[in-house]
Amino acid sequence: MLAVHFDKPGGPENLYLKEVDKPSPGEGEVLLKVAASALNRADLLQRQGQYAPPPGASSILGLEASGNVAELGPGCHGHWKPGDSAMALLPGGGQAQYVTVPEGFLMPIPVGLTLTQAAAIPEAWLTAFQLLHCVGGVQEGETVLIHAGTGGVGTAAIQLTRLFKAIPLVTTSSKENIQMAQKLGATAGFAYKIEDFSEEALKATQDVGVNVILDCIGGSYWEKNLHCLAADGRWVLYGLMGGAEVNGPLLSKLLCKRGSLQASLLRSRDKKYKEALVRTFTKRVLSHFSPGSAVQLHPIVDKVFAMADIQKAHSRMEANQNVGKIILEMP
Tens digit of pLDDT for each residue in 8-32? Predict the structure, then answer.
């Protein structure tokens, strides 16, 4: 089969397609013939040599995919049969023509969605769901500040915040992106390049502050995050795009707010946790992607690239040009 490959860490120019052995499903695994996969920041970091796959995971890039079941491994429970369409959360391996998946990581394709659209769901939406529901414990009526509000996780988090009857605010790079976020349900947005998002968030909450912050930026935002965090607020850290270093009285400021700082990653979670997350998401959220739902959810696809254009896809994400998910279609 063909798979995205790189011989040494570096820039997008190091990526190319390579013929490799097709994997065989092990105990409790399904072989998925991949139709489409989506890019994530973790793919860029892995390509740069900064984010190794978890032990036992494929070294091929790709944390989510959609396609059709090709083969069942021993010990599967009969929930899937060859030919079934499905989307899957992956620890790696999605940017290839075939990938093996634990049976419990598969989800059905929502009615009305194409395989290309479905590829935009698993990693981004499960991450956003985990951050809001499992880690952040968002409650009805609370205010959520979502950084990188027009990225893959951000566009999912806006919609899920609305589903949970909470109030989404976002930061993003431009006024145009704020309009996009508002169409998805954001109450307000702040263009971080031209305004102080912490002051604007306080104004938007009548100086109360935000109850939950979803933060993929890290170090460069810590002071502003704490400035606009409400008393007893939860700051949920899931990325370090703005660096890992903090210089200053973070702990004393956090203590004054009685705030909590919680860190979360999905890729490194164990199999049991991910299976439980997939089950809960499937039960509580998946039906809302189908027509007729009271709260209609939409996977946001930025641009679709052929697998052979993997360098262009990575360059687009690295330049922060995407609004929503960048998709790769397999040959």
Answer: 999 999 999 999 999 999 999 999 9
